[in-house]
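Structure request: Vacuolar protein sorting-associated protein 16 homolog, Cyclopterus lumpus.
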Amino acid sequence: MAFITANWNPLGEAFYRKSELYEMCWNLRDGLRDCLVSAAPYGGPIALLREPHKRSPSSRPQLEIYSASGVGIASFPWKSGPVVHLGWTVSDELLCIQEDGSVLIYDLFGSFKRHFSMGQEVVQSQVLEAKVFHSPYGTGVAIVTGSSRFTLATNIDDLKLRRLPEVPGLQGKPSCWVVLNQERQTKVLLSNGPEIYILDSTSCTAVCPPGLGPQAGSIVHMSVSFRYKYLALFTDSGHLWTGPSHLQDKMSEVDTKKSTPPKQMVWCRRPKSQQPSVVLMWDRLLMVAGVCNDTIQFPTEDQCVLVGELDGVRIISSANQELLQEVPLVCQDIFKIASMAPGALLLEAHREYEKSSQKADEYLREIKEQSMLGEAVRQCVEAAGHEYNTDTQKSLMRAASFGKCFLTDFSPDLFVSTCRELRVLNAVRESSVGLPLTHTQFKQMTLQVLIDRLVYRQFYPLAIEICRYLKIPDYQGVSRVLKHWASCKVQQKDLSDEAIARTVCLKVGDSPGVSYSHIAAKAYECGRTELAIKLLDFEARSGEQVPLLLKMKRSQLALSKAVESGDTDLVYTVVTYLKNEMNRGDFFMTLRNQPVALSLYRQFCKLQEQETLKDLYNQDDDHQELGNYYVTASYREKRLENRLSLLQSAVDEYNKAKNEFSAKATEEEMRLLRFQRKLDDEKGAGLLELSLQATMEALLALGLHKQAEQLYRDFRVPDKRYWWLKLKSLAEKEEWEELEKFSKSKKSPIGYLAFVDVCMKSNNTYEAKKYVSKVTPEQRVKAHLAISDLEGAADAATERRNESEMAAVLSRCSTSDRLLIDRLNRARACAVKK
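Returned structure:
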């Protein structure tokens, strides 16, 4: 345990340690001198702009991007304007803020993404200083211009510029300033000599930090903690004031005995720690000042850059990178000299057990007597998470596993999850990956964000292995990684379309949540249309294929895919697109090659676009359908002349189609219309638009029998239909004499039972009896029964010796007709014998 605590430095009640993260892989000849440097938090990448003040076209500054371990990612000459500040967004995109207020955004690989401006007035006044900050709204940018005005953009993804009020008496840039986030509001805290102001959207307020007397002098440097909770102020007299960022309390005031302002000042605080500290850096000196008025001093040889983290400070030099942090309490309890904490005893017990020493049992008994074995296991597991050295991690986890064996009700979840998380963290901390995350940062970042960062850096195999190892659901893990990998793969220009399509299909396969259409869209954006089409062949959902094919102007293929899908809505979508994009002739020719699409389009036109339907039939020389179209169109016309004209066109088309029946039927419709109009003009009969049968019924109802007979002859109406129509009409009008004359005009083609029935419907038995004698013998029984003449019905049935007719008569007889019943029964018996 002694060697672990060798690099611990006490500061008040806390200890601080420096752990080496990497020996940097880069080769910087001049170190970090004359460089603008920015490193992203959470073990993020490092950006260097060498000699940013070079203006010569022949010798431009070089912008370089490295991983946290110094592995080169991108490098290119800076060809834009002078850069004032570099910063990173929460998604690891590089912001380059120029003197003219332009902010250029690059991705991790140096590809330009977009740019925006901090306002037109900045172009003239120039940016003097700038800062990139992170808030609940996203990544923000703050600048101070030559006119001593501050401008804020709290979220660069939803750009809204805010120009803050003027600061009284401020000339040029302030002595120092920071951005604060308080109560979901973004403010600027600045000092102008001995005076301190807070700027918000509407006001500029002078403030005075508690306990900072006039003897402290002017404030020349200030720093806010990682989560904006604490504030540090450094004065020109060498005093360091610390307190909450709301400036209502004071935590400490330390005399650093340094009159020159530090080059950098960063907070170093472990979450939940009550002993926060500030790290100050001068040439060749690093100082840690805490609230206890003590300091720790580390000599430095090279120029360094401090990067504030959630639970410490990264110290980056040209040779190596270290993490300065407060030693977590659980690590202090276990590794502190002569510690009797349960975790320390368990660790010692395991060491003795590995030596086969009986002291292991003594240590275990001591822990058990205190009933602290579960706490000891928990301490070892928690401490292992905070350790960066893998040997120390293994030692602690083995001790925890050893202690766990003597517990019956201990849940293994914490132990198992910590083992898995440490394995993941150790993998991403490798120099080749360069993500030096602590366990605390990992928990804050979440596993999902870590996978995203690995994918963004194109560490696809590692990301997939982590997803499988941690058993993340496919749609959140492997499938999502494969989707990003495939989207990147299609951008490789050194491989053929066929090779890329085959590789993507082989790797992705049927992975759930991976859309080939999404990958194809990326290929199309890169100008690889043929590759996109090949990838779309692997897409199982036609609804995803078709929109992209239309976007790629492959309308014929899109139509084929839509038809194959059997989805009518999809077919209609493609057809509508083609109609808007093509000229009419090409559109119709395209549809002719797809009968299903053509049929659906015809159905659509019948409901929505009648004129288009006519053009469609003309294009195909479909005379039969054209005739049908003219007939249908004729019924929408109000004027008879127009209707007759359309019907004549229909006749011509039917003749061309050699459809004699339809042509003749249409001609007869025209004759009927002319006849109806003539009668309407002469009699005002209101016959127009009635059918032939309805017209004849109307004529008979009006008493226009001659005209009805004319229609009967002209249109060769069947005799039976005409007799029925006239019979019903005369009976309804109760013109019994005319009815009798009509019955005698010639032999009835419908028989005379119909006359009996219509008379009885009008309850006229007298008239009905006139026709009973004319009824044929086969229907005579029915006629007698219709007029309730049971005697006559019985005679007719007996005469025909028909058993079923006799039974029908018997069913109508009542008990009072005893003689008739007996007669019919005797007749039935005789009929049966014969």
